[in-house]
Amino acid sequence: MYDFQTRINRRGTSCAKWDQDKKRTGREGLLPLWVADMDFHIAPEIQVALEKRLVHGVFGYTFRPESLDDALINWFSERHDWKISRDEIVEAPGIVPFIHMAIQKFSQPNDAIVIQEPVYYPFRLAIENNGRQVVNNPLKQDAEGKWHMDLPGLAKVLDDSSAKLLVFCSPHNPVGRVWQENELLALADLCRDKGVILISDEIHADLVHPGYRHTPWLTLPAERRPKSISLVSATKTFNLPGFTTAYAIIEDPELRDETRKMLKGLGMGGSESPLAYAATESAWRDGADWLDALLKHLRTNDELLRTKLAAGLPQVKVSDLEGTYLEWLDLRALGLEDRNIWNRVLDAGVWPSRGSQFGKTGECFLRVNIACPSSQLEEGLDRIITALQS
Ligand SMILES: Cc1ncc(COP(=O)(O)O)c(C=O)c1O
To answer: 5, 6, 149, 287: which has the fewest C-beta neighbours closer than 10 Å?
Structure first.
């Protein structure tokens, strides 16, 4: 019913993923498996909604329709058992811009802000771009290779740094963890005790695989939570990142008020793009079947990746993919330097994300985006294997 196997030519569309290989790597014709968007057509349901809006032909100033909020509320209620009330929704101009603004609003220059690397690298950039100090509490691996938060480490980091903010990724990009409720509660207890505001980036919330369940931060008991902002978006789930829309969900009235003032002070509402609104509303209203089909396809690609790597590069360890469509490959057992791995892979014509981008603990790791047709993934993996086998 939905096609996830046809390879679509995205070159020549100012496509960040496909049209920047020369600029970013110095090489041409690379097969990209890096930035987190998908090489798929959007759901036909969303295409219809966009076409309907497009055919109208007038694109004047637009406000966010109530029907979009209804779609958001129903989506998170049905998919995640998370009851969001209308007045908790604050529109944001994208998650990364929102994190930058929140850092300006809720901390002072040179203040410490905590992240847990390896993590989505714009978190670090948002802190550095605003002249604040990154305090890293690295994730740790257990004997089975599973990644965990270092909670005793975090308690110490919070005490030593007097940090006022923590930026959290849930589910976690790049290690693919879907945090369990007990882990979230332990984090909540620490942040609440120390008076730390927690920003929970839940852009990957819907991309969760069988056997796992995403626990939205704001479904934790209110008395256990610190002051919190949750960030959600339809852009990752439905491959609409070019529309740059996001929503901050803020239960705490004071924090919500402060956030609204922050946006007002920047002269900023949301995207105010009629096409972005049409796409987002349709995604949350009509997109469930497409998402379920996508998740099945991702399982197929996950198995493909594990089978191929087990055969071609058995030393490489791949974290379990609990959530996201981003595989985290540990290549340390190959005994090669990070730079050597990277150059070999690029020279073989494939372009994953370099692990060290996500923090020092990501050295000798690669992140591979599997949200593409299987034949494309297979070709990319063959190139990685050839590059590193010799
Ligand atoms: C964890 C995480 N947050 C945010 C984003 C991007 O959000 P936005 O496009 O709304 O800035 C991504 C994209 O990869 C992501 O992985």
So the answer is: 6
Residue among 17, 101, 117, 120 whose CB has most ligand 1 atoms within 8 A, to mutate: 120
Ligand 1 atom at shortest distance from the alpha carbon of 233: 10
- Burial string for 361-375 (b: 16+ CB within 10 Å, else e) reads bbbbbbbbbbbbbbe
- Please report the atom of ligand 1 found closest to the CA of residue 36: 14
Query: Which whole number is the average pLDDT over 22-28?
Result: 97
Which residues is 350 bridged to in the sheet?
31
Amino acid code (one letter) for 173: N
* Domains of the chain as residue ranges with CATH: 21-43+288-389 (3.90.1150.10), 59-286 (3.40.640.10)
Percentages helix, strand, coil for the chain (3-state, rounded to 5) are 45, 15, 40
> For residue 10, what are the contacts with CB-CB under 8 A and spacing of at least 6?
17, 18, 19, 39
Q: What are phi and psi of 33, to 5 degrees?
A: -130, 35
SS (H, E, C) 142-155: CCCCCEECCHHHHH
Give the tens place of pLDDT for each residue, 271-308. Answer: 689 999 999 999 999 999 999 999 999 999 999 999 99
